[in-house]
Amino acid sequence: MAKDKHASAGVSRLRIGMGTTIAIEGDAGTPRDSLAALEAGFAAILQLETLVHPSRDGSDLPAIRQAGPGAPIAVHTWTWEVLTLSRRGARLVSRNPGGAPELG
Asked: Which pLDDT score, from 0 to 100, does residue 97 have?
């Protein structure tokens, strides 16, 4: 039987991380490339989990807490992006405390 050249090489995996179940799916052309892409995705999530953990070694959050208000501190770009999105979300919720935020 001939192999279908358009057959999917998609893969999916579940892992625990950041206090939840993380699902990643990918199709990078071959099963090997797809698995490599998934592993890269899980590695990025693990790095983010470390960066924004409230107490883990290597986290930016304890350093921010120890620096105090207004003190300059260098943080990873991903930490900055997560904190910026969190702040934006908090502002949206505070505008509509009785219900869902207006995202439009």
From this structure: 66
